[in-house]
Amino acid sequence: MLNNFRNSIQPILKQLGKAFSIIGIHPNVWTYVSFIFAIIAGIMYAKHESYSLFLSSIFVLFSGFFDIVDGQVARFSKLISKKGEFMDSVLDRISESAIYFGILIGNYTDNYIVVLALVSSFLVSYLRSKSESMQIKIQGIGIGERAERLVIIIILGIAGFIEIALIVIIFISIITIFQRMYSVLRHI
């Protein structure tokens, strides 16, 4: 859903890519920076201290920001590669896992809620990957892509409502799964 706004903010994203390209750091490095922030977020969630939800959500925000930066720098610098695209995708899944496992270990909610959030999130990503292997583009289809899920974790996490965030993620992910399945089946 947020991907649908990408065209309207494209000038801002291009400027972001340009600004970070000037630094001269390869886009893959920004991918690793994003990954490190997600791992730190997961560790902070797992600690379950009084500040954990707030601080973890800030680290998720940084992770999401640098996940945008890596792609924009790659586009601006003309350094788009299959290796970079592959690593970005793999590290995105590991990052999500770290965040969810941190929430699980931190014991913020029932384990089954965290597992359902993780599984439904991964199914959304799997459907995109599978459809692309069939030459069917479904990016932007569904209300619960990765960007939306991160925004929900950030906003509701900062507010202290991580259990509600996970329930919302499960709900929008399930809707997205059906939206994507429907879209793919229409093209087959």
Q: How would you sum up this structure, described in words?
A:
- The chain has 7 helices and no strands.
- α2 runs antiparallel to α3, α2 runs parallel beside α4 and α3 packs antiparallel against α6.
- The relative contact order is 0.14.
- The mean pLDDT is 94.
Defining key terms:
0% strand; mainly alpha; globular; 188 residues
Short description:
With 188 residues, the protein is mainly alpha-helical. The protein has seven helices and no strands.
Query: How many strands, which pairing sense, and closed or not: the largest β-sheet?
Result: none
Mean pLDDT: 94
Q: Which segments are poorly predicted (pLDDT under 50) over 5 or more consecutive residues? A: none
H/E element sequence: HHHHHHH
Radius of gyration, whole Å? 17 Å
Give the helix proportion (percent range): over 70%
From the N-terminal CA to the C-terminal CA, the straight-line distance is: 23 Å
* C-alpha geometry: globular
How is the topology of this model organized?
Elements: H1 6-22, H2 27-47, H3 52-77, H4 82-106, H5 111-133, H6 146-158, H7 162-187
Helix pairs in contact: 1-3, 2-3, 2-4, 3-6, 4-5, 5-7, 6-7
